[in-house]
Amino acid sequence: MRRVEHVMGFPVSVTVDDEGVGDDVADPVFAWLREVDARFSPYRPDSEVCRLDRGEPAPHEPSADLVEILDLCEQYREASGGAFDVRLPGRGLDPCALVKGWSVQRAADLLRAAGAGRICLNAGGDVVTAGGPWRVGVRHPERADRLCTVLELTDGAVATSARYERGDHILDGRTGRPATGLLSVTVVAPSLTEADATATAAFAMGAEGVEWAAARDGCEVFAVDSDRRVFRTPGLPVAGRPPHV
Length: 245
Description:
This protein has 245 residues and is α+β, with helices and mostly antiparallel strands. The protein has one domain (2-232): Roll (T-fold), CATH 3.10.520. It is built from six helices and twelve strands. An eight-stranded antiparallel beta sheet has the order 1-2-3-4-7-10-11-12. A two-stranded antiparallel sheet has the order 5-6. It has a two-stranded antiparallel sheet with strand order 8-9. β3 and β4 form a beta hairpin.
């Protein structure tokens, strides 16, 4: 079963490679992601995030989910020395850097709970897998028609932060300016919550973020810096010989 929908501003594909699984197994996944977009988007004036940012939460807000999201954001802010920050001066509260990975990981958990064993969720290039092996290509940061490497995952997640899709959208919370020093950073971790937030924080930190991400428990890293030097941790699950950058 394979199904693709556009949710939260990017395409999300759900692949389930199990016999007898119908398209309806993906219904709760896309319903959940649409709910996340409605509740936590900083671009929807009626979302929980926007209401909280305006100081006008409803009686039962913030919800337990939003509390969890903001707690995780604070953990990454502290761990990155302030480079990862969802409350930049002059800007509204924007937890998107954590919400994406957190919500897609939960979507994968919904599939597993429904009995799907061999799954792959691809959310705008960030991927959660189970029951592999699955092969995941890492895009060249300057050439859309090339891959830097191909990873092989069984149960885990991979996320990449870079400029090539959205320009200088990742800001260094310590300066408020666009992050520099890296062209792209890819993180492999047990969950997409960890992989996505770690990749974003590392990119925001610049060159020092590579070593920081590599030191985090369970994380493997592939990165290309602004001088086009390639860094990869020894445990990176590369499938075969990686192409030359």
